[in-house]
């Protein structure tokens, strides 16, 4: 289940984001979290099953398009289709929007799209 990020999830969110290659540096990680907390068009969602095991972060590019900047699943829960479920749930939540990846998330996003077909 996709849930919206709240400040009390900060440590969990930072932990999950730190698995992304672009977020290894602590300062970069803190900047990313701050961006999701302070910029209106940036949103962070967590994936919760029994525990929070995934994260997906987007920004609204315009009225019709959102871009996925971050997507990550806890390594112990990978290869179970969680990322694909997050992308699908995001599509259901933002039904009137086109969802596109960034350069960093493109490979994973395309993999999810192929499994959909």
From TrEMBL:
InterPro entries xrefs: Acyl_CoA_acyltransferase, GNAT_dom
UniProt-listed Pfam families: Acetyltransf_1 (PF00583)
Organism domain of life: Bacteria
Swiss-Prot/TrEMBL keywords: Acyltransferase, Transferase
Keyword Acyltransferase: yes
Domain N-acetyltransferase: 3-117
Name of the protein in its database record: GNAT family N-acetyltransferase
Organism, as annotated: Bacillus suaedaesalsae
